[in-house]
Amino acid sequence: MNTGFIDWELGRTAYSIFGDLDSAKVPLVTLHGGPGFLGKGMTTVARYAESAGRPAIIYDQLGCGKSTAHKEKSPDFWQIEIFIREFNELINQLGIAENFALIGHSWGGLLAAEIAITQPKGLKALILSSPLGDTDTWVADVKKLLAEMPPEISSVIIESEEAGTTNTDEYMAAAFKFYDKHVIRVPMPPDVAEMFDEALADQNVYNAMWGPSELMCNGTLAGHVVTDRLQRIEIPTLIMSGKYDECTATTAGAYHSGIKGSRWELFEESSHLSYVEEAAKYQRVMNEFLDSKC
Known about the structure:
The chain has 294 residues and is an alpha/beta fold. The protein is built from eleven helices and eight strands. It has helices at residues 43-51, 80-93, 107-117, 135-147, 151-163, 169-182, 190-201, 204-209, 249-258, 274-277, 279-293; strands spanning 2-8, 11-18, 28-31, 56-59, 100-105, 123-129, 237-242, 263-267.
């Protein structure tokens, strides 16, 4: 694994490369979730690609990890356009802008879709992994999932979020019960737990773009709509989501119907982290799709 930084107008972006970019296979660029949940969250996915002889890149998006933090910036600074610019700088400086594949998970899935909508000429294939979609739809669906939880859990979460007391032990205990069902349904591997701990310790970008919790989007992503422009995505696209996912059938289905010729793979035993929950299947589906398209 090779690591480094790119320097660009808005700071430094830290990246890691798995495999050899001079390989015969088209390199895969990964986009982590959050916003602000660190590039290391996509290490597992990058290794899946590397195992098939395909080079892969992970990076800390601006505002997190080893990249420039910009904690002095106002919340309004954090807009999707910044991350599209950062991505373009990365692929240009790494010399892969003419030939690459792209995978994004959760927030990274929305970012990947927004990048694909701009129709970069070098993009050969797109994978949307449990992608965030229209934010109002997402919040409404998460509230429906919460309503299906036992009252002793849902009431604590709802009351705490309404009161703005989401930093209590009681709230966190209830929230993790929700996460156990709709975020990751298997024991959290040490590397995933480490990533969550680091991300939750610094939620500056998450709070600015999303808001204080999963149930409330009042940041710069509030009211964001992507589904009205999906017809501009004209390259082979794979959508993956879990049966118990926060990315519900409503969101995944909107991507599938909006992107002509796309394929939707549902993971029956998974929630939001299907690349961990059904690792073998995810690795196989991802690599077979990429090998068939680029």
